Input
Amino acid sequence: MAQLATIGAPAPVLAVVNGVPTTTSTDVARYFGKQHQDVLRAIDNLRAQLPPEPLRNFAEGSYTLPATGDQQHKLYRLTRDGFTLLAMGFTGKRALQFKLAYIDAFNRMEQALHTADPERVKLAQSLAAEVAAVASRTVFEAVLSGSGEWWRFSRYLFSLHWEPGQAKPTKSWAQAIQDDDMVTSMRELPARILEPGGMLVSDAELANLAAACNQKLARRFQTKTTDSAQLTGAGSYRKEVAP
Output
């Protein structure tokens, strides 16, 4: 199924819990542009009307916020059926588009789970949980340690740091990316530099980059010339001493 896009909205956020695709009330609120308290109220109203069996589609949990420290805030973790029941009550000009995008995300995750190797699924769940923990700690520390509100615009880089032969990452890490840092490949770098209105690069930075590239090319040319001369000399020597 083709992935649906919602202009101006982030992608639906799902996570696999005990082999089941789920989302949270906080993610639903963020995606649909609603107050979390309103989403909680809607879920509580639904739960009050449901028989015991469907209640498992709304697992109560909690989360913390940097502003409130260790204080626990209520949330619900929803299965596909739980989300479907909740979203029935969402109305508005773009609500249908958002619902379809969420259902599409559930469909794709369920398909991936059904076709993937079970051991691979367990590994994916484990690594996702580890990255989530590292991300949470890194963002928490960034918000507390920073002055002003620079952290609102921060980007973060995450790595599993997987060593060859290891069954799991030796040390996952995350770090904030500075405003003038970029993550790109050498293949894409020239296009990024030339892109109109793209990278903000000073004349000095361009000159330093050009000088470094020229030096690198000169060293490679010198190395290739030396290697070629050595091979040619060795060939001549072998030819001279051959019987």
Q: What stands out?
A: The CA atoms of residues 29 and 39 lie 6 Å apart.
